[in-house]
From TrEMBL:
SUPFAM superfamilies: NAD(P)-binding Rossmann-fold domains. It comes from Talaromyces stipitatus (strain ATCC 10500 / CBS 375.48 / QM 6759 / NRRL 1006). It comes from the Eukaryota. GO terms for molecular function: oxidoreductase activity. The lineage of its organism: Eukaryota, Fungi, Dikarya, Ascomycota, Pezizomycotina. This is Hydroxyacyl dehydrogenase, putative. Keywords: Oxidoreductase. The keyword Oxidoreductase applies. PANTHER family: 3-OXOACYL-(ACYL-CARRIER-PROTEIN) REDUCTASE (AFU_ORTHOLOGUE AFUA_6G11210), NAD(P)-BINDING PROTEIN. Belongs to the short-chain dehydrogenases/reductases (SDR) family. Pfam families: adh_short (PF00106). InterPro entries: NAD(P)-bd_dom_sf (IPR036291), SDR_fam (IPR002347).
Amino acid sequence: MAEFVIKDEDLNGLKGKVVIVTGTSSGIGLATANLLLSLGASVVGGDIQPSATPESTPNWLFVQTNVTVWTDLSNLFKKAKEHFGRIDHVYANAGIGPRANYLALETDANGELKEPTFETLDVNLKSVMNTATLAVHYIKQQPEGGSVVLMGSSTGLQPLRAPDYSTAKHGVLGFGRGYGRLVQVAGLPIRINTLMPSWTSSNILPNLDGMMQGISHEAQPGLVVARCVAYLMSDTSKHGEAIYVSDGKYKEIEKAVLSPTFKTSILGEGNPNDDEILERMLALGK
């Protein structure tokens, strides 16, 4: 696994850039917004909760946003473009914890079984996909392009006894891998990367830090993840990466682990992968 270090000088490419970050009122989103501002970027934050960043900061714009509502998300991008004139990078970060109960179904007033909630999937997967789609729409208008960072989780790499949360994070990884490939094939100057952090101080679960202390496991600070966001935006060579973040360490897993393992241990040498087969099928239709 390719482990790497992020130095302060690796984050110098963001001065004067305009960055949209969702979920900026707490946790990793707030840490990221503050870091980006300190690096000289202009930041547009979107969150359903009120802003936690001083409104007097000239390079900061907050737009109250429910990321599960398309018109809210669209308005966030529209306001960013109107205020700063451009959008260079986007971090689709907003998220919530598990919500659905798949073992004990609730009933309505008539005693009928109720469908489990899809709230976590709507916030943690659907809104990430919509945010990324809007990002590409705006960024591709600039010849120099830009980048999109997707908020996944280490839980998207392993079994987790919270199926809705796990499914959403597995989905983010799949979306990032597929969307990155699609953008590349389309020849767009846009980079798509995915973060897969382990337990991090946030509001995902009530009293998360307290519970971590109770089990003698320390959650990493949000700044550790924020630095990786800034790094992926700054380094123009980074595209199609999936980065595992844990205990302050960064490990590239897409190109170092996932793709090579599938190619050598599952697919077998000499066999075309599914994307190559799809490419041939699409060529037949032209």
